[in-house]
Amino acid sequence: MSNQLTPQQLVAAPGSTPGAPVLDLDEIQGDVLIGLQKNFERFVFFQIADVAAFKVALRRKIAHRITNTLTVHAREHQLRDYKNQGGKTPLPLVGLNLGFTAAGIGKLLPGADLGDASFRVGAASVAPALGDPVDGAEKLVNWKPEFVANNIDGVFLITGGTQDAVDAEAKEVLDFVGAALTTIFDQSGNVRPGLEKGHEHFGWLDGVSQPGINGLTTPFPGQRLLDPGHFVFGYPGQAGPPPLDWMNNGSFMVFRRLNQLVPEFDKFILDAAVSLAMDPVLLGARIMGRWKSGAPLALTPSQDDTTLGGDPQQNNNFDFSDDQSQRRCPFAAHIRKTNPRTDLLPQDPNVDNRRFIRAGIPFGEEVSTPEQTANTTNQERGLMFVCYQTSIVDQFEFVQQKWANPTGFIFGKVHPDGSPVNTGQDPIIGQNNTAGENRARSTDEPVPNYPTGNARSRLPIPTDFVVPTGGAYFFVPSIAALANELSA
């Protein structure tokens, strides 16, 4: 079942490492730091229709039902033992988490200000500044109306090993609340089948480079071990204490519904490879910064190494300090743009301060034969992107606005001949901030100069192949806050 951390990474006794912070794992919701175990995940976005009745249900029925991190931690070991014993059938392992938008917090606790400017105004208001396409009236053109309307108060995250287990839990929870809420948008995601399990719809292994958490994880080689305050309030690493005490053990959650135009992307890679006279598999790897197996170009720049790609002891054990001419991995590759590692300064704290924990899941059917034949998407598929942090402004939004989108970042780099590099946008998630239909971008040096060479090349990208179609910002409170302050 898909999750962020593996049993090998989890410390035997959380918080027992000398000098590490002791985390309240029974208070932190389970998706935040480790990730709810999920073959299937249902997102139920809702509006609170009857505040008093909702508070009663929250206090009496829901708060104690929320899956905490201690439970998720124990389930990792349960899954490991089950697999070692030859278990094949997915275990139900149902999980339930809950978050609220600023509007929802305002209904439950009038006047509460959680201190994050973007959370306060909501994702739809900020999306144009992230580069999401808008029309001449600054209206988001691809977002689903349920998210544009800005009437979502909260979301239930319901996960499990089977869709039936997830749906049964969803029914029970919604029955608890009854008419106290109105469902605004309801969609399920699932890990991809067979050999594609763990891969996103373009085909790359996902979730490889996650930060380690001091006091919770034993880092793999190359994995940065960060203080938990980057991701959950009340611990070392946060920029400052939260404005409200009940925010401790809570986290801000960013949700983005991202369509992926897979047949169009595949056709683009094939055509561009012909134009550049290079192998399309290599071109795809240089766009992403990894081969589809997860093996990084920084370690194996010329060909895939599937053994390395699937090995967490190796697949993240690199930085870019020995690749300052982008011979192995382009500066604009997705993994380098969004996590520049030592490209800023060796272990620059500003890189650590921007990290967040990803916990998304694919949605939609596999590409059909007619879609492949026509090179055209006929049914939606993509990623239900989720990430956790203690500052939406300084973490998720900073990475999108200051790293992925700008053509100059990574700043100050030069080609082997000494000429300055204009990296271009992130070829996967970068957006050019242009209203209307002109979404063209470009990225630097798709053709490799490894191990030597000085060929200049540029890859024009005619359109977006990742299209934001909705989003919302949530606060995921501690279980104590759900049972007390928010349901009083």
Architecture overview:
- With 488 residues, this protein is an alpha+beta fold.
- The protein folds into 2 domains: 30-259 and 474-487, no CATH class; 262-355 and 395-464, no CATH class.
- Helix content is 26%, strand content 16%.
- The chain has 16 helices and 13 strands.
- It is globular, with a radius of gyration of 22 Å.
What's the helix and strand layout?
Layout: H1 30-33, E1 40-48, H2 51-62, H3 69-84, E2 95-100, H4 102-108, H5 117-121, H6 123-130, H7 145-148, E3 154-160, H8 163-177, E4 181-190, E5 212-213, E6 225-226, E7 251-260, H9 262-276, H10 280-288, H11 306-309, H12 334-338, H13 349-352, E8 357-358, E9 361-363, H14 369-374, E10 382-389, H15 396-404, E11 441-444, E12 458-461, E13 466-476, H16 479-483
Parallel strand pairs: 5-6
Antiparallel strand pairs: 1-3, 1-4, 2-3, 7-10, 7-13, 8-10, 9-10, 11-12
Helix pairs in contact: 9-10
Task: List its salient traits.
single chain, 488 residues, alpha+beta, 2 domains, 5-stranded antiparallel β-sheet, 4-stranded antiparallel β-sheet, 16 helices, 13 strands, 26% helix, 16% strand, globular
- Structurally, how many domains make up the residues? 2
| Rg over alpha carbons | 22 Å
Sheet/helix structural class: alpha+beta
Helix content: 25-40%
Mean pLDDT figure: 94
Counting DSSP H or I runs of 4 or more residues, the number of helices is 16
| Strand segment count | 13
Residue windows where pLDDT falls under 50 for at least 5 positions: none
Strand content: 15-25%
The assembly state of the depicted protein chains is single chain
What is the overall silhouette?
Answer: globular
N-to-C order of helices and strands: HEHHEHHHHEHEEEEHHHHHEEHEHEEEH
Task: Give the biggest beta sheet.
Answer: 5 strands, antiparallel
Task: Compute the separation of the termini in Å.
Answer: 36 Å
